[in-house]
User: Fold this.
Amino acid sequence: MKTMQSGPARKLPGVRQIRRAAGILKPKSAIVLLKSDHREVEALFKAYQRSESQDEKQTAAKKICDALKVHTRVEEEIFYPAFINATGEESIHDEALVEHDGAKKLVVEIESTELGDRMLDARVTVLSEMIKHHVKEEEGVGGMFSKARKAKMDLMALGALLEARKQELTRDEPGRKTPRGTRASFMGAAALARAEGPRPHARRQP
Assistant:
């Protein structure tokens, strides 16, 4: 089941302030940023496969888990609410959330796996397959990103929100700082995006 498009999504305010506060000099589309996250995670899985010692595997697994926790969080807080608001595509939205839930459970298991436990390889392998499928569902023809473009979502505004939120979530990493004002700017625009409520759609078509 899907809904027909009802015109361009409304623009999110506060984008300039967010970019300024977060030090974002060259804003990118939300889809470009999310695809970049996908490529990063794919590279981390390959790094895990190349790991030879248990210590290397544990380190690579932690990087995979950390990257996925940030990625799934910004998608769920910013991109997914904007997507369902603009498109009304409930099935693809709900399936993405279910896939996230499955990945999160595996991340918890991987993070609790002790050094040298032979189950680490199996868990990372299954997580890799889950992420591959999830990425295909988002990036593929007729997938979430394609539908977001067709709905004329404000992808540059969402990109600014995504980048600012990622900076906030990773601010405790060594050498990384979050400029003052990022949180206030982010929260204001993101809250509005969630509070706008569903846009009107045409009748559902069978």
